[in-house]
Amino acid sequence: MMDSSALLDFIGLYLIPGLITGCIYALGAIGVSLLFGILRFAHFAHGDVMTLGGYLALTFVWWLGWPVLAAIPLAMIGTALVAVGLDRAFYRPFRRRPTIISVIASFGVMLMIRSAIQLIWGVEPMQYKAGIERPIILFGQLRLQERHIWMIAITALLVLALHLMLSRSRIGRAMRAVSDEPDLARVTGISTERVILVTWLVGGALAAVAGVFLGMDSKIDSYMGWDMLLPIFAAAILGGIGSPMGAAAGGLVLGLIEELSTYNWIGENPLVPPDYKLGLAFAIMVILLIWRPTGLLRGRQF
Amino acid sequence: MDTGTLLYLISLATMICLYAILTLGLNLQWGFAGLFNAGIAGFFAVGAYTTSILTTPESPDHLGGFSLPIPLGILAGVLLSAVLGYAVARICLRLKSDYLAIATIGIAEILRLVLKNESWMTNGSRGIAEIPRPFEGMAQPWGELCFLLVTAAVVVLLYATIERAWHSPWGRTLRAIRENDEAAEAAGKDVIAYRAQVFTLGSAVMGLAGGLMAHYLKFIGPDATEPILTTFLAWVMLIAGGSGNNRGAVLGAALIWLIWSGTELLTQRLPPDWQTRSSYIRVFLIGLLLQIVLQRFSQGLLPERPPQPKRSESPSKPV
């Protein structure tokens, strides 16, 4: 058994970072899962949409001099609009074509977003705020970063809001209908294009928050979203692709697994070397694909 | 023509041949069978690193010292790529095509992680240098020319083989599966087995391209698994040239590589401050080119032409 100081260390150094990573994965995976459910294609540019959100927030921080948390809503709006624009320009022409064409298009969009970011903002990693934040210390030695508390709270709020939207609002229910039975939904008079519009708005806005969190957690970097692509897809598959709440849970679980796996559970050394955390997400994904492609929560198989 | 220009033209032609091999490999997977491989870089890297480790002399920086003959090294890389391709195929082919795309991206990314971190084997991010190039001992430009001839011969040989496969019953079955897998299954075809075969073959060809590229560049680093230069360019080449058409694959490789390296020549004339930025503009424009081709010329320059049965001749004759 751990003594209390080791337990507090464990919470501060492994559990909290795991939750933070999980929040970022969850916000990204919800978008991927929603888009997959409604448009039936894997949106490979989603990681780079996250990156874009992070950079937009940075720009608002520069322009307005606001703290980064206040810039989040603006970044959400901006990224959501860009996501809709991307859909209009690059995905809508392929609605009636095999979905794999959209996947190829998203592959190109991914590189276009990234190179545009590198062109506009450069490739030097940047920060929202210079200097070191003073941690809040609880119980004598549990160090908590204020931003981490905000990140967890904002994610919880957004996931709750999304849940209410999907279960209560008219458009939310229409989204679920299109995801479950597209033909039936069209027959009952649901406007598919409107549902798709809202899906991109929601997916883009949540991706923006994930991108800002990524930047807050370490640095803003043009490759940060691309590096998230594999984990967010793994999270979406874990939660049963097409199910947004499952994706949120999958993201949280995956983030926790990744961080906790670097703890020295057996012997002195980390169970998984930190350099290979990303490999773990992939391993989980492969096991799922073999064993239960519908996800842990028994989603549907597409 | 001075030697510099000649060497430049030879290097241009060699790169086109190497990319043509890569694109032909992708055409096997995508053009023949409609299998989406988003991790070309991974298979390419397996081919490149295997032969690099096997053929280099002893070095304190990385695993090696086998000094095997180059063809043997390349062959080993091809086999290893094929094994990797087969494993991916077995896991993912039962599922919707998007899963294959995700899994192949995953393979490529994990390989990049391994190549970067396992320094004892790969010298980490510094990469493997001093990879032998065939015909190195010959005077310029004859050595380069011989290498070009060998790669060109590989392209011709591959083209002929794949073209033959395209017209064979095997190729026809694959196209049937691509167009309607349920119907093909109902006709008694083992859909998964066919897909696994063609995916494995395509992966092997990508490994071949990687192996040849490593010996041509004489250096390989984890940047080789960077998707922009392999996965992405190969896709643009195939889509622009015409997927499902082997001639289109080769033409696309030539055209896109000329555009890609032509824009590099242009941007070299820019002031240094703009040079770094311009590389992003190049990537952006290639991305845009892919979108335009997909939307406006979805068939590519040379559209697919499935062999037509010759109806005018006697029906008993096999077509």
Primary descriptors:
heterodimer, A: 302 residues, mainly alpha, ABC transporter involved in vitamin B12 uptake, BtuC, 2% strand, B: mainly alpha
- Residue fraction in strands of chain B: under 5%
Query: Given the structure, what is the number of helices of chain A?
Result: 11
Going by helix content, strand content and strand pairing, the class of chain A is mainly alpha
What structural category characterises the helix and strand content of chain B? mainly alpha
**What is the number of beta strands of chain B?**
0
Architecture overview:
The complex is a heterodimer of chains A (302) and B (319). With 302 residues, chain A is mainly α. Chain A has one domain (4-122, 135-291): ABC transporter involved in vitamin B12 uptake, BtuC (Orthogonal Bundle). Helix content of chain A is 70%, strand content 2%. Chain A has helices at residues 4-39, 46-64, 68-91, 99-121, 146-168, 170-180, 182-187, 192-217, 229-238, 244-260, 277-291; strands at 136-138, 142-144. The model of chain A has no long low-confidence stretch (mean pLDDT 88). Chain B is mainly α. Chain B contains twelve helices and no strands. The longest helix of chain B has 30 residues, at 3-32. Chain B is globular and about 55 Å long. The relative contact order of chain B is 0.17. The A-B interface holds A 36, 41-42, 44, 89-90, 93-94, 97, 99-101, 103-105, 107-109, 111-112, 114-116, 118-119, 229-230, 233, 237, 273, 275-276, 278-279, 282, 285-286, 289-290, 293, 301-302 and B 34, 36, 38, 91-92, 94-99, 101-103, 105-106, 109-110, 113, 116-117, 228, 232, 235-236, 239, 277, 280-281, 283-284, 286-288, 290-291, 294-295, 298.
